[in-house]
Amino acid sequence: MSILNATFDTPYHTAPFSKIKDADYKAAFIIAIEKARAEIDTITKSKEVPTFKNTIESLEFSGEELDRLSSIFFNLNSAETNDTIQKIAQEISPLLSEFSNDITLNDALFKRIKQVYEQKANFDLNSEQETLLDKKYKSFSRNGANLPEDKKGKLRDIDKRLSSLKLKFGENILAETNAFEMHLTSESDLAGLSEGAKEAAQQLAESKDKKGWLITLDYPSYIPFMTYADNRELRKTLALAAGAKSFKGDALDNQDNVLQIATLRHERANLLGYKTHAHFVLEERMAKTPETVTHFLNELLEKAKPAAQQEFEKLEAFAKNLDGIDRLEKWDGAYYSEKLKQKLFSLDDEQLKPYFKLEHVINGAFTIAERLFDLKFEEINTIDKYHEDVLTYKVTDLKGNLVSIFYADFFPRSGKRNGAWMTVYKPQSIKNGINNRPHISNVCNFTKPTKSKPSLLTFNEVTTLFHEFGHGLHGMLAQTTYPSLSGTNVFWDFVELPSQVMENWCYEKEALELFATHYETGAVIPMELIDKIKASATFHEGMQTLRQISFGLLDMSWHGQDPTAITSVKTHESEAFANTRLYPEVSQNCMSTAFSHIFQGGYSSGYYSYKWAEVLDADAFEYFKEAGIFNKEVAQKFKDHVLSQGGTQDPMVLYTRFRGKEPKPEALLKRAGLLTR
Ligand SMILES: [Zn+2]
Question: What whole-number distance in Å separates Cα of residue 485 and Cα of residue 430?
Answer without folding.
Answer: 11
